[in-house]
Amino acid sequence: MGPIGVLCLQGDYREHLKTLSQLGIEAKRIRLPEDLIGLSGLVIPGGESTVIDKLSHINGVFDPIKRLLSQGMPAFGTCAGLIMLAERISDGIQGQESFGGLNITVQRNAFGSQLDSFEASVPFLNDYVSAAFIRAPIVSQVSEETEIISKLPTGEIVGVREGNIMGISFHPELVGELAVHSLFVEMCKKADFRAEL
Ligand code: GLN
Protein backbone atom coordinates (compact mmCIF):
# COMPACT_ATOMS: atom_id res chain seq x y z
CA MET A 1 0.00 0.00 0.00
CA GLY A 2 1.13 3.57 -0.67
CA PRO A 3 0.92 6.35 1.92
CA ILE A 4 -2.31 7.77 3.29
CA GLY A 5 -2.47 11.52 2.82
CA VAL A 6 -3.93 14.11 5.15
CA LEU A 7 -5.09 17.34 3.53
CA CYS A 8 -3.09 19.92 5.50
CA LEU A 9 -4.59 23.26 4.45
CA GLN A 10 -6.68 24.20 7.48
CA GLY A 11 -8.32 22.54 10.46
CA ASP A 12 -7.35 19.69 12.76
CA TYR A 13 -4.95 17.93 10.40
CA ARG A 14 -2.29 17.55 13.10
CA GLU A 15 -4.64 15.39 15.15
CA HIS A 16 -5.32 13.19 12.11
CA LEU A 17 -1.58 12.82 11.46
CA LYS A 18 -1.12 11.87 15.12
CA THR A 19 -4.00 9.37 15.08
CA LEU A 20 -2.63 7.64 11.97
CA SER A 21 0.88 7.53 13.45
CA GLN A 22 -0.57 5.93 16.60
CA LEU A 23 -1.87 3.20 14.30
CA GLY A 24 1.62 2.74 12.86
CA ILE A 25 0.78 4.46 9.59
CA GLU A 26 3.09 7.16 8.33
CA ALA A 27 0.77 9.73 6.88
CA LYS A 28 1.78 12.20 4.19
CA ARG A 29 1.00 15.92 4.40
CA ILE A 30 -0.92 17.06 1.32
CA ARG A 31 -0.75 20.70 0.30
CA LEU A 32 0.03 20.73 -3.42
CA PRO A 33 -1.07 18.62 -6.42
CA GLU A 34 2.22 16.69 -6.69
CA ASP A 35 1.85 15.58 -3.04
CA LEU A 36 -1.08 13.43 -4.17
CA ILE A 37 1.01 11.14 -6.38
CA GLY A 38 1.09 7.57 -5.11
CA LEU A 39 -1.53 7.99 -2.36
CA SER A 40 -3.64 5.02 -1.36
CA GLY A 41 -6.14 7.17 0.53
CA LEU A 42 -6.84 10.70 1.70
CA VAL A 43 -8.11 12.08 5.02
CA ILE A 44 -9.91 15.42 4.96
CA PRO A 45 -9.86 17.03 8.39
CA GLY A 46 -12.42 18.99 10.34
CA GLY A 47 -12.16 22.74 10.39
CA GLU A 48 -14.09 25.16 8.23
CA SER A 49 -15.34 23.77 4.93
CA THR A 50 -15.59 27.19 3.28
CA VAL A 51 -11.89 27.81 4.00
CA ILE A 52 -10.81 24.31 2.94
CA ASP A 53 -12.75 24.88 -0.29
CA LYS A 54 -11.03 28.22 -0.95
CA LEU A 55 -7.52 27.03 -0.07
CA SER A 56 -7.92 23.86 -2.16
CA HIS A 57 -8.63 26.05 -5.18
CA ILE A 58 -5.75 28.43 -4.41
CA ASN A 59 -3.29 25.53 -3.99
CA GLY A 60 -4.54 23.78 -7.14
CA VAL A 61 -5.60 20.55 -5.40
CA PHE A 62 -9.36 20.97 -5.81
CA ASP A 63 -9.70 19.50 -9.31
CA PRO A 64 -7.11 16.72 -8.86
CA ILE A 65 -8.78 15.55 -5.62
CA LYS A 66 -12.23 15.65 -7.23
CA ARG A 67 -10.93 13.56 -10.12
CA LEU A 68 -9.12 11.03 -7.91
CA LEU A 69 -12.30 10.54 -5.85
CA SER A 70 -14.26 9.83 -9.01
CA GLN A 71 -11.55 7.27 -9.91
CA GLY A 72 -12.10 5.43 -6.63
CA MET A 73 -9.47 6.86 -4.29
CA PRO A 74 -10.43 5.97 -0.70
CA ALA A 75 -11.26 9.03 1.39
CA PHE A 76 -12.31 9.76 4.94
CA GLY A 77 -13.66 13.11 6.13
CA THR A 78 -14.55 14.34 9.60
CA CYS A 79 -17.01 17.21 10.05
CA ALA A 80 -15.86 19.87 7.53
CA GLY A 81 -14.22 16.91 5.74
CA LEU A 82 -17.63 15.23 5.50
CA ILE A 83 -19.01 18.46 4.04
CA MET A 84 -16.19 18.51 1.46
CA LEU A 85 -17.09 14.93 0.43
CA ALA A 86 -20.84 15.57 0.08
CA GLU A 87 -22.28 16.12 -3.40
CA ARG A 88 -24.80 18.63 -1.99
CA ILE A 89 -24.51 21.18 0.83
CA SER A 90 -27.47 22.95 2.36
CA ASP A 91 -26.72 26.14 4.28
CA GLY A 92 -23.41 26.57 2.47
CA ILE A 93 -22.14 30.05 1.71
CA GLN A 94 -22.74 31.45 -1.76
CA GLY A 95 -20.61 29.62 -4.33
CA GLN A 96 -19.33 27.03 -1.84
CA GLU A 97 -18.05 23.92 -3.62
CA SER A 98 -17.20 20.45 -2.45
CA PHE A 99 -15.09 17.62 -3.86
CA GLY A 100 -18.14 15.34 -3.79
CA GLY A 101 -18.00 11.56 -3.90
CA LEU A 102 -20.80 10.87 -1.44
CA ASN A 103 -24.26 11.05 -3.01
CA ILE A 104 -25.75 12.80 0.03
CA THR A 105 -26.88 16.20 1.22
CA VAL A 106 -25.33 17.64 4.37
CA GLN A 107 -26.69 20.45 6.44
CA ARG A 108 -23.96 22.62 7.94
CA ASN A 109 -24.00 23.72 11.58
CA ALA A 110 -27.10 21.59 12.10
CA PHE A 111 -26.96 21.23 15.86
CA GLY A 112 -27.85 24.83 16.66
CA SER A 113 -26.04 27.32 18.83
CA GLN A 114 -26.58 25.99 22.36
CA LEU A 115 -25.42 22.55 21.31
CA ASP A 116 -22.53 23.75 19.12
CA SER A 117 -20.06 21.46 20.85
CA PHE A 118 -20.36 18.33 22.92
CA GLU A 119 -18.61 15.04 23.51
CA ALA A 120 -20.45 11.78 23.17
CA SER A 121 -20.23 8.06 22.81
CA VAL A 122 -21.63 7.55 19.34
CA PRO A 123 -23.12 4.40 17.80
CA PHE A 124 -20.77 3.38 14.98
CA LEU A 125 -21.41 0.22 12.96
CA ASN A 126 -21.92 -2.48 15.62
CA ASP A 127 -20.12 -0.60 18.35
CA TYR A 128 -19.70 2.78 20.01
CA VAL A 129 -16.89 5.29 19.50
CA SER A 130 -15.88 8.36 21.51
CA ALA A 131 -16.01 11.65 19.69
CA ALA A 132 -16.40 15.41 19.88
CA PHE A 133 -19.07 17.28 17.93
CA ILE A 134 -18.10 20.86 17.05
CA ARG A 135 -20.58 22.87 14.99
CA ALA A 136 -21.29 19.56 13.34
CA PRO A 137 -23.26 18.93 10.17
CA ILE A 138 -25.90 16.24 9.80
CA VAL A 139 -26.59 14.13 6.76
CA SER A 140 -30.04 15.28 5.73
CA GLN A 141 -30.50 13.14 2.64
CA VAL A 142 -28.97 9.86 1.50
CA SER A 143 -29.28 7.79 -1.65
CA GLU A 144 -29.65 4.10 -2.45
CA GLU A 145 -25.91 3.48 -2.45
CA THR A 146 -25.38 5.14 0.98
CA GLU A 147 -24.59 2.87 3.91
CA ILE A 148 -25.53 4.56 7.20
CA ILE A 149 -22.75 3.72 9.65
CA SER A 150 -23.64 6.11 12.47
CA LYS A 151 -26.93 7.47 13.73
CA LEU A 152 -27.60 9.26 17.01
CA PRO A 153 -30.28 7.90 19.38
CA THR A 154 -32.27 11.03 18.44
CA GLY A 155 -32.30 9.91 14.79
CA GLU A 156 -29.76 12.21 13.12
CA ILE A 157 -27.51 10.50 10.56
CA VAL A 158 -23.92 11.38 11.44
CA GLY A 159 -21.87 8.80 9.54
CA VAL A 160 -22.07 7.32 6.05
CA ARG A 161 -20.06 5.25 3.64
CA GLU A 162 -20.33 4.74 -0.11
CA GLY A 163 -17.80 2.38 -1.64
CA ASN A 164 -14.35 3.63 -0.60
CA ILE A 165 -15.53 6.95 0.81
CA MET A 166 -16.49 7.46 4.46
CA GLY A 167 -17.65 10.64 6.17
CA ILE A 168 -18.65 11.37 9.75
CA SER A 169 -19.99 14.51 11.45
CA PHE A 170 -17.82 14.14 14.52
CA HIS A 171 -14.16 14.08 15.56
CA PRO A 172 -12.70 10.82 16.93
CA GLU A 173 -9.23 12.33 16.32
CA LEU A 174 -9.79 14.97 19.02
CA VAL A 175 -10.45 12.49 21.82
CA GLY A 176 -7.84 9.81 21.08
CA GLU A 177 -10.33 7.37 19.54
CA LEU A 178 -8.57 5.09 17.04
CA ALA A 179 -11.32 2.76 15.79
CA VAL A 180 -12.67 4.85 12.90
CA HIS A 181 -9.20 5.59 11.49
CA SER A 182 -8.33 1.93 11.89
CA LEU A 183 -11.37 1.02 9.78
CA PHE A 184 -10.27 3.56 7.15
CA VAL A 185 -6.78 2.05 7.02
CA GLU A 186 -8.41 -1.34 6.36
CA MET A 187 -10.53 0.22 3.59
CA CYS A 188 -7.36 1.62 1.98
CA LYS A 189 -5.55 -1.71 2.17
CA LYS A 190 -8.49 -3.47 0.58
CA ALA A 191 -8.91 -0.88 -2.20
CA ASP A 192 -5.20 -1.01 -3.12
CA PHE A 193 -5.46 2.32 -5.00
CA ARG A 194 -2.47 4.39 -6.19
CA ALA A 195 -3.11 7.98 -7.17
CA GLU A 196 -1.72 9.24 -10.47
CA LEU A 197 -2.02 12.80 -11.70
N1 GLN B 1 -19.16 24.13 10.71
C1 GLN B 1 -17.97 23.78 10.03
C2 GLN B 1 -18.10 23.91 8.52
O1 GLN B 1 -19.11 24.29 8.03
C3 GLN B 1 -17.51 22.39 10.37
C4 GLN B 1 -17.06 22.31 11.81
C5 GLN B 1 -16.02 21.27 12.07
O2 GLN B 1 -15.33 20.75 11.17
N2 GLN B 1 -15.85 20.96 13.34
O3 GLN B 1 -17.19 23.61 7.81
Describe the protein in words.
This protein has a single domain (4-191), classed as 3-Layer(aba) Sandwich (Rossmann fold), CATH 3.40.50. Helices cover 25% and strands 31% of the residues. The protein has five helices and twelve strands. The strands form three sheets. The protein has a seven-stranded mixed sheet. A hairpin with a 2-residue loop joins strand 7 (117-124) and strand 8 (127-134). The radius of gyration is 15 Å and the shape is globular. The mean pLDDT is 96. Glutamine is lined by residues 46-49, 79-80, 83, 108-109, 134-135.
Helix and strand sequence: EHEEHHEHEEEEEEEEH
- Number of structural units classed as domains: 1
Task: Decide which structural class fits the backbone.
Answer: alpha/beta
- Rounded mean pLDDT score: 96
Low-pLDDT runs of 5+ residues are none
Taking the sheet with the most strands, its summary is: 7 strands, mixed
Oligomeric state of the chains in view? single chain
Specify the CATH class.
Alpha Beta
